[in-house]
Design a protein that fits this description.
Layout (H helix, E strand, L loop, with lengths): L1 E8 L2 H19 L4 E8 L6 E8 L2 H8 L5 H8 L6 E7 L14 H5 L1 H17 L15 H12 L5 H6 L1 H7 L8 H17 L6 H22 L25
Helix pairs in contact: 1-3, 5-6, 5-9, 9-10
Length: 253
């Protein structure tokens, strides 16, 4: 992935036309398979300054795929009047310095922190052990296992990285699933019991949280099934995933 920044200086007398034309040009970007996303911003301190950010799948895909493809002439025809207003046009590679501020609470904080997640996993594994379909998978479960899973969920949802520091991180979690040959019916029962436990544990019931929570559970359990297949070609070393709100941030009315 590569990020392109294009800085324009467009006077007030042409600013409305510039924004209208770029809205048309954006319709071309919407159809470009090389384009990941884009955003056009306007400075509030210096309104003539506009910055277009486009994420491309790669610099080569941008320069050869998009610019050499059928869509570029249509795109260029719309933005051509503003080519002379460009002050900067460069590709930038992302770095490891990235993160989120505290303006939007993490899923971990929204859920109620570690106490809420420990309540969830305790109630969940009570249901698991009593279940005929998936109970046998956990017949030899350690008494501390629910707390360990709570630490995993805490880290996934934006809380402290204790599972990585204390429990071995992603490779340790992977090791719990290798060779288990988890079936799709077992996965579905796991999801169903966890959703029931989330209600019993009184986790937040707002649509935004439950959508993000369910999204992780679906992704994580499907990955676990794939990794549990005998002889599966798995990624053995990776960081613990960090899950966010996705397209529906928390509603704070």
């Amino acid at each position: 992935m590569i990020v392109e920044y294009i800085r324009y200086r467009v006077g007030d007398d042409r600013a409305d036309a510039f924004l209208a034309d770029y809205a048309r040009a954006a319709q071309v970007l919407d159809r470009a398979p090389q384009c990941v996303d884009y955003e056009l911003t306007r400075s509030v301190d210096e309104p003539a300054c506009h910055v277009l950010r486009i994420r491309w799948t790669s610099a080569e895909d941008h320069l050869q795929g998009f610019r050499g493809g059928d869509l570029f002439p249509e795109f260029l025809a719309v933005i051509r009047p503003y080519v002379g207003d460009i002050e900067e046009m460069r590709h930038y590679a992302t770095t490891a310095v990235t993160g989120s501020g505290a303006a939007v609470p993490s899923l971990y904080a929204w859920a109620g922190g570690l106490p809420a997640l420990e309540r969830l996993t305790r109630l969940f594994y009570e249901r698991v052990l009593a279940d005929d379909l998936i109970g046998p998978l956990f017949a030899h479960m350690d008494d501390e296992h629910p707390k360990h899973v709570a630490l995993w969920l805490a880290e996934v949802f934006g809380g402290p990285d204790r599972y990585t520091r204390e429990r071995g991180g992603y490779p340790a979690m992977l090791g719990h699933h290798l060779g288990k040959a988890i079936t799709e019916p077992q996965r579905r029962r796991w999801v169903s019991l966890l959703m029931d436990a989330a209600d019993a544990a009184e986790l937040p019931a707002d649509p935004e949280f439950r959508a993000a929570f369910t999204g992780y559970v679906e992704w994580g359990t499907r990955l676990a099934v794939a990794n549990s297949r005998p002889g599966a070609d798995v990624v053995r070393s990776a960081p613990v995933p960090r899950w966010g709100w996705g397209v529906a941030p928390p509603w704070q009315g």
